[in-house]
Design a protein that fits this description.
single chain; disordered N terminus; about 150 residues; alpha+beta; 4 strands
């Protein structure tokens, strides 16, 4: 599991707490939807990056590109922010660091370490991070304005 955390979300946390206290479920859902929409292009860029940078021989690139990607938003607690999380049966974090560990085909007693191109997951996150932060901030502002009405 790998994640990107958008920090500095004091206003997001304050808005989340206010919406929760008032019990305005619709505005909370609107905020979550807007955040999911803001991160959707990043999901596609991560998939494209996996197809481009990971080895295609043996099907690894396509397998990783089809990994489950989700956006998780936390509006209270210690780690307030937005995370993009990838999960698969492979060690996504190690793959992003350029390390692939796999068995010899058909022989699970013999495992090998292979080097792959690093950053297939983190590069798209950093490339889109500023735009996502801006969209999340705008979405939070829109919801806050509706909340204050």
């Amino acid at each position: 599991m790998v994640e990107l955390v958008i920090k500095g979300a004091d206003e997001l946390e304050a808005l989340g707490k206010a919406l929760k206290q008032v019990g305005d479920r619709e505005l909370r859902l609107e905020l979550f939807r807007a955040i999911r929409t803001a991160t959707k292009p990043t999901h596609q860029q991560i998939r494209d990056s996996a197809r481009e940078l990971l080895p295609s021989r043996g099907g690894l690139a396509e397998l990783i590109a089809k990994s489950s990607l989700s956006t998780r938003t936390r509006l209270s607690g210690r780690q307030v922010g937005v995370r993009i999380v990838a999960s698969n049966r492979h060690d996504i974090r190690s793959l992003d660091k350029g390390r692939l560990r796999h068995p010899l085909y058909g022989d699970r007693d013999h495992w090998f370490q292979q080097t792959v191109r690093e950053g297939w997951f983190s590069r798209p996150l950093f490339a889109t991070g500023k735009a996502v932060r801006l969209e999340v901030s705008e979405a939070a502002s829109r919801v806050a304005m509706k909340f204050l009405k």
